[in-house]
Amino acid sequence: MSSVLVLAAGIPAEWLSAGVTVTRLPTQFGLISYDSKEQDGKITLSIKGDVNPPDGFRIRLPNSLTAENTVTLNGGVVSPKAGDIAICALPATIVIDP
In this structure, are residues 87 and 45 in contact, taking their beta carbons and an 8 Å threshold? Predict the structure, then answer.
């Protein structure tokens, strides 16, 4: 059994732009919530919860969103690998800026 919690895998870029809300999703590590919204061309993904997976979290975003855009995690620029962004703790905010 993996000790990494993967979120948003398979969600199309169009859905993230339009807005996705997941509230109190039960996982093997506890409850987690996240939502996305687009404003001024930027997509913001906010994640919160009482979960604490031993090896952290991975947000799996579509490559079309991460390949050519600036991506930040809690204000710091990150370089997603194959659309994956590693997160160590919550709350977390990811911003995708064209």
Answer: no
